[in-house]
Amino acid sequence: MKAARIERFRRGGAILPALFTVGNLFLGFWAIVKTMNGEFAEAAPLIFWACVADALDGRIARMTGTTSEFGGELDSLCDVISFGVAPAVLAYGWALSAIPRAGWLAAFLFVMCGTLRLARFNVQRHVVDGRFFVGMPIPAAAAQIAAVVMFAPEPLAERVAAIPVMVLVVMLAFLMVSTLRYRSGKGIDLGRRHSYLAVLGVAILFLAIALHPGSVLLLMASAYSLSGPAGHLMGLLRRRSDVPPPPPAPAEAH
After folding, report:
1. Are 179 and 134 contacting, i.e. CB atoms less than 8 angstroms apart?
2. Which of 52, 60, 82, 110 is least crowded, fewest Cβ atoms below 10 Å from its Cβ?
3. Other C-beta atoms lying within 10 Å of the C-beta of residue 54
4. In the chain, what are the domain boundaries?
5. What's the rounded Cα separation, in Å, for the pair 109 and 87?
6. 132 bridge partner residues
7. 191: helix, coil or strand?
8. With left for phi above 0 and alpha for psi between -120 and 50, is residue 43 left, alpha or beta?
9. How many other C-beta atoms lie within 10 A of the C-beta of residue 112?
10. For residue 132, which phi and psi values (nearest 5 degrees)?
């Protein structure tokens, strides 16, 4: 009787992560619709909410012990829409349409690299260090584009203003397929007791986001985007400083 009750709970728990995954897909599709209607200020936050749903579905699946290959594949397929197509369409509608040919190529490059990033993640997820992502995760790249649009939601009609956006989109595309390491956050234990300072810091962060969402989210997204190249550069400098000095040359006999 008890085993049957546990089995029913497990089956019910398996539905919850799937609901968050489908919610992620819905938010991404809704962001595309808003972008097509020219409502960029409303489309960008939807991508952030999709990031929240994407973060929760995997964590809930691990907490309830309902992780599965089906759930992982469904999550990746939804991510292609929410974090590949939706931010690319948003970037094109908001700015890149001012440089049509190069703009849509940059947007397509973002979608392509994001899809390759997800395919590589699916292949390597069981063989890499879970504390790090290899390459910039696609939700973070999507959040970077959404943060820029939230910070300045007025569409860019001038070609000169759209070129930096195109450069950003291309850079994010290559960061996704790079081998730079990014922190995954999977080592954070929500069940562990935290100090009052940590709780206070999280509360202040949420308050700052509520008061100035555009500025704070742009700062957070940019800091994470730069963390990969910065960490790689620091590692190179550290390895260079750890190289032992060459041995002294032998003294010449007189």
Report:
1. yes
2. 52
3. 26
4. 2-186+193-241
5. 12
6. 183
7. coil
8. alpha
9. 15
10. -130, 150
Q: Which of 140, 139, 162 has its CA nearest to residue 91?
A: 162
β-partners of residue 134 are: 181
Q: Which residues pair with 133 in a beta bridge?
A: 182
CATH of region 2-186+193-241, choose from 3.40.50.11930, 3.30.565.10, 1.20.120.1760, 3.40.50.720 = 1.20.120.1760
Q: What is the distance between the terminal CA atoms of the chain, rounded to a whole angstrom?
A: 94
Phi, psi (deg, nearest 5) at residue 77? -65, -40
- Cβ burial of 91 (10 Å; 0-12, 13-18, 19+) is buried
- In contact, 45 and 103? CB cutoff 8 Å: no
Q: How many CA atoms lie within 13 A of 77 on its CB side?
A: 8
User: Do 144 and 168 meet the contact criterion of CB atoms below 8 Å apart?
Assistant: yes
Tokens of 231: 């960490």
The pTM for the full model equals 0.85
User: Which residues, including other chains, have CB under 8 Å from residue 218's CB and lie 6 or more apart?
Assistant: 147, 148, 150, 151
Please, what is the angle between helix 2-36 and helix 69-79, to 10°?
Answer: 10
The predicted-structure confidence for 105-152, as pLDDT tens digits, reads as follows 999 999 999 999 999 988 877 666 667 888 999 999 999 999 999 999
CA separation for the pair 233, 236 (Å, rounded): 5
In the three-class reduction of DSSP (H, G, I as helix; E, B as strand; rest coil), residue 112 is classed as helix
Q: What is the mean pLDDT of residues 177-182?
A: 93
The CA distance from 135 to 173, in Å, is: 10
* CA nearest neighbour of 139 among 55, 216, 226, 223: 55
